[in-house]
Amino acid sequence: MNDMSKLSPDQMVSTARFETTRWVDDLNAALAAKDALAASSLFATTSFWRDLIAFTWNLKTVENPEGIADMLTATLPHLDAVHFTIAQEPTEADGIITAWLSLETGHGRGEAVVRLREGKAWTFLTTLVELKGHEEHSGPTRIMGAEHGVVRGRKSWPERKADEAATLGITEQPYVLIIGGGQGGIALGARMRQLGVSHIVIDSHDRPGDQWRGRYKSLCLHDPVWYDHLPYLDFPKNWPVFAPKDKIGDWLEMYTKVMEVNYWSKTLACKAAFDEEAGHWSVTVIRDGKEITLHPTQLVLATGMSGKPNIPRIPGAETFLGEQHHSSKHPGPDAYAGKKVVVIGANNSAHDICAALWEAGADVTMVQRSSTHILRSDTMTEEVLGDLYSERALANGVTTRMADLTFASIPYKVMPEFHIPLYERIQRKDAAFYDALRKAGFMLDFGADGSGLFLKYLRRGSGYYIDVGASDLVIDGSIKLKSGVEIDCITQTGVRFADGSELPADLIVYATGYGSMNGWAADLISQDVADKVGKVWGLGSDTPKDPGPWEGEERNMWKPTQQQNLWFHGGNLHQSRHYSLYLALQLKARMEGIPTPVYGLQQVHHLS
Amino acid sequence: MNDMSKLSPDQMVSTARFETTRWVDDLNAALAAKDALAASSLFATTSFWRDLIAFTWNLKTVENPEGIADMLTATLPHLDAVHFTIAQEPTEADGIITAWLSLETGHGRGEAVVRLREGKAWTFLTTLVELKGHEEHSGPTRIMGAEHGVVRGRKSWPERKADEAATLGITEQPYVLIIGGGQGGIALGARMRQLGVSHIVIDSHDRPGDQWRGRYKSLCLHDPVWYDHLPYLDFPKNWPVFAPKDKIGDWLEMYTKVMEVNYWSKTLACKAAFDEEAGHWSVTVIRDGKEITLHPTQLVLATGMSGKPNIPRIPGAETFLGEQHHSSKHPGPDAYAGKKVVVIGANNSAHDICAALWEAGADVTMVQRSSTHILRSDTMTEEVLGDLYSERALANGVTTRMADLTFASIPYKVMPEFHIPLYERIQRKDAAFYDALRKAGFMLDFGADGSGLFLKYLRRGSGYYIDVGASDLVIDGSIKLKSGVEIDCITQTGVRFADGSELPADLIVYATGYGSMNGWAADLISQDVADKVGKVWGLGSDTPKDPGPWEGEERNMWKPTQQQNLWFHGGNLHQSRHYSLYLALQLKARMEGIPTPVYGLQQVHHLS
Q1: Which residue intervals define the domain FAD/NAD(P)-binding in the entry (chains A, B) (predicted)?
Q2: For residue B303, is pLDDT > 90?
Q3: Were B182 and a residue from A93, A387, A457, B211 both cysteine, which residue would form a disulfide, CB within 3.0 to 4.6 Å?
Q4: What is the DSSP string of A150-181?
């Protein structure tokens, strides 16, 4: 490298490019020869191939040469003309070469990221981005809109829209029914429209965005704007870093409209059953008071990765004379000034609700039952997301798509390796803050293995608070803390603890989280189907609330499940944006009759 | 250049950069010395300095060293610390060096474009982009949104919005009242919000976007998407090239909401008067049936550059037994299948309406009273706009802002030099099309001097059709044409011509254009004020409908008028985007009490 750096850029072929070229050439040759063993020999003893539907028609991470050989042995017979090319100048750091590749197969095009160590692949991400013959119309290929020329009887845009509204779900059946019109359902709906897949998104609220508007008053996004873009339409440059909930609600509402998502508001899904013979679902919905039965081929549950509200059974709760509700039903603090409130739970919602109640003049106590991971929002924005999702990243040429792929290119099993040192640094940086929290009696953790926020989110979707100010109120005692003592029972007037102490309460808020998403399937379809697909979310990390065995990917999310034609979609805005692409392509391929042989359909190890 | 091209890029200082550096250094020195003569000597004998509020607090083009010296003599005493720097590598073509400069003054920052010929400036554009101390919060300086930390009594975003809605115009007066909530009013409203200028946009329609929705069914934008972006938020990449009117309506509605424009729908402006002593306007409006008097300091008429509908007085019109209406009131073709329709006029609306009527099965005749400029839409998109506003331009690195500045950098007086050869080429390219039109009896022109569409638009805002298909119907006789014969009168049953022929009609559509925008001022304020500000729009080109003397800029648009605190805003989407910036900064500066001495306030030569 040192000698070569004296050459002009044109004359220099970097070691990184040389090594990458050799590896890519070898891989292309092995794939062309359909030689799974030869291909797998290009991977290190410890290695990971994460495929997002390009090879496996699944979201699948296989490990080590054996796992890779198994995957290729199964998939190569179906794959033609697989070819990788180097898309950007490879880079080298700390002995690891990172290279961005383009991927073409017989049926589509995609992107890939490989990390090479001593000439062999350590991590490999492959993604499908478009299907040949079904490319999205965008940029240079955008539709004309006005059809130039004049044709008798032609319908105008609003007439075609009105026709679609009058027939879809009534005389014409949608190919896809998406239940849940939050960010996930809307993002997927936009992709369905763009890919020409007939679809309906149903949601019980009055308007798109009400999922956010209806939450507690002080709620703002805890993730910064750069992480939150929806497909096709970025937030504008004058958008705040952390948008207030109602502003996000307005954005989702307008996005639904301008993306021409077929969105049925005020529509409740009552009952669904899959007709194996007919190959479609029967879904009974009540739209604006009227019962309609839909027959979509594919059914997507986008009802929130959080699943159904979880309220613990506490003895005596039924005798409580005050008000009690789950955090998802909390109306905000205004009615509780001067009242005594006990909030059970110590994660995100608990903190936000306690802070808003304190702001409004309530006497509020947080009951912490187990330790919580706390990460200061500024620290997260700067230290955790800053390299990928920030103005700094944009200035460095890291687009949202590149950031998404970079993030996706780190296999879940390896992610702790990247995150543990990061959180060690964060603990040093924010040591005074964490010490003060501990001094206040707050039970802290940084995840079972010290890997922090994202891993906790990916493993269990809970157990943390991104601090936007409430922790200071816990530290200074404004929010009272009851920690480390078991709840004994609820009395007529409050909460009694195992140590005999009692907290009087006018209101009890259960900020006690949510169940698995297959709870929705149990309610809507049947317990049998819910059990057949099993637990949704989590990696099988064998850490609290995420039992093993290791799955390699999020359980049941954005990929085929054990129930034919049933899909789960959701997650935060980042996931709704990124993974909706792969889910959309899986649905589109099926609609078009493109063969989609699934490799490694997940086995069910847990029912919920 | 030839010798230098052998050097590496680092070692080479191009002639273009060398010449530009010398010119910029000389200009900076002259401006620092407040030496108007020295500065003007850097300009060629025939030369143009177009200033968009950076020097003149006006939109002003001055000509030749004498004009430039006059402008600088008047403005330099008020200007401090003016300094230009080269912003991009200058380029040279055909003996002209083009250089992009950054501009800083004591009170703001801006951009500039200079064209040098033989060491002297031929054209010079200077623009102000932001006021120091009042920079917009965008990208790296965007607001946080969530205020981290918890503050008792703090109001949430929807509470602050509700407070503003409850007080603005009632107990608090807006600084700016914008009458007319089409694209112009909305774009300016978005800039007002972003600059922190209290404002209300009023509009008589039910919803933002209804200005488009209410027009004839087949209407699509005639300008392509790349030309049409609004401030802050580009159309997404999946947006059609030529959007249908209702889709644009939906976009404007959502844009109004997400940009948090204070928009009063269903509100009619009845009467306005300027109180010189108080320094503000009294404007009576009826909002949703209720009369309210507003007292804005600044009043902006954004009621459409087209002004009020113009219906010619034709003898006998009052005796006609069928239906007759102006094109702006035309409901679309659906009710007229099988009916006989006469459309008087041969410009954009006439063509679109005739085509839609023919599509719907009406028997339709277009009455052409004078020659029309026709430009095929594909040709316009490719030949006229393609270098600046297209996927090709974007691929070449030409951003929308660069395109706007490039377009603005060509002084109106020079523009025909650029456009006449272009339209000569277009006439050759589309010769068969134009020949067929002439053969059908259609009277064609390419503008008084052959300079084509844009000059016609800038001079008179009318006299053309961007062909999206109707011309073929004229050519093949589907749309019947009556051309070159004077209308004698309207009878009870149709239209009679000077040659004695008569056209029976069930419907007469007057596609006869619009008056000057100061007609709105006459209705709303007084004829005196309308006469005081004079004609709006046009350059003084001494061509049909644009009488001399030469003005150098659009009359009264986006700049101070003879009526204190009265402004006109409008134009197509491109102009609404670009010029709303300069109008917004003029309003913001006045609100902040920043001195804004206006150089060269325009004189009034025509009343309408």
Answers
A1: 176-402
A2: no
A3: B211
A4: --TTPPPHHHHHHHHHHHBTTTB--SEEEE--
Encoding tokens for residue A33?
């020869």
Residue A3: Cβ within 10 Å count: 7
What's phi and psi for B293, nearest 5 deg?
-105, 125
- Prediction pTM value: 0.92
Contact B450/B420 with Cβ under 8 angstroms?
yes
Tell if the CB–CB gap between B241 and A142 is shorter than 8 Å: yes
Set of chain A residues whose Cβ sits within 8 Å of the Cβ of B470: 150
A396 contact residues in B (CB cutoff 8 A): none
> Can you tell me the distance from the alpha carbon of B285 to that of B272, in angstroms, rounded to the nearest whole number?
9
d(CA A540, CA A538): 6
Beta bridge partners, A275, equal A280
Distance CA A562, CA A531 (A): 10
CA dihedral A179, A181, A185, A190 (to 10 degrees): 120
Yes or no, beta carbons of A238 and B138 under 8 Å apart = yes
- Number of residues in chain A: 608
Q: Quote the CA–CA distance of B444 and B439 in Å, as a whole number.
A: 11
Sign of the dihedral through C-alpha A124, A127, A133, A137: negative
pLDDT in tens, A445-479: 999 999 999 999 999 999 999 998 899 999 999 99
Nearest partner of B202 among B260, B254, B255, B269, judged by Cα: B269
The shortest CB-CB distance from B145 to any of A8, A244, A257 is to A244
Helix (H, G, I), strand (E, B) or coil at A259: coil
Apex A549 CA angle, A544 and A554, nearest 5: 75
Query: Which tokens hold the place of B580?
Result: 């709303």
Reported as half-sphere exposure (CB side, CA atoms, 13 A), residue A100 has a value of 13
Cα within 13 Å of Cα(B270), Cβ side: 12
pLDDT in tens, A419-446: 999 999 999 999 999 999 999 999 999 9
Strands A280-287, A267-275: pairing kind: antiparallel
| A194–B358 C-beta distance less than 8 A | no
Find the closest chain A residue to B376 by CA distance: A148
Residue A159 with chain B: CB contacts under 8 Å: 217
pLDDT at B5: 45
What is the rounded distance in angstroms from the CA atom of residue A226 to the CA atom of residue A603? 35
**CA B129 – CA B80 distance, rounded (Å):** 17
- Report yes or no: A142 and B241 within 8 Å, Cβ to Cβ: yes
Q: Do A146 and B244 touch (CB under 8 A)?
A: yes
Chain B residues close to A246, C-beta within 8 Å: 156-158, 161
Nearest Cβ partner for A238 among B137, B158, B250? B137
- Cβ separation B468–A146 shorter than 8 A: yes
Cα(B299)–Cα(B174) distance, integer angstroms:
10
Across the interface, do B242 and A145 touch by the CB < 8 Å criterion?
yes
Q: Which A positions 463-492 lie with beta carbon below 8 A of chain B?
A: 468-470, 472-473, 478
Tokens standing for A24?
A: 């890519």
Chain B residues within 8 A of A148 when measuring between CB atoms: 377-378, 468-469
pLDDT at B307: 67
ipTM value for the complex: 0.89
Q: Are A513 and A347 in contact (CB under 8 A)?
A: yes
**β-bridge pairing B340-344 and B507-510:** parallel
Q: What percent of chain B has pLDDT over 90?
A: 87
Alpha-carbon torsion, ordered B194, B195, B197, B201, to 10 deg: -40
CB half-sphere exposure, B168, CA atoms < 13 A: 20
Q: Which two tokens stand for residue A569?
A: 């979609």
**For the residues A120-129, what does the mean pLDDT come to?**
98
Residue of B nearest to A218 (CA): B156
The DSSP code for B285 is E
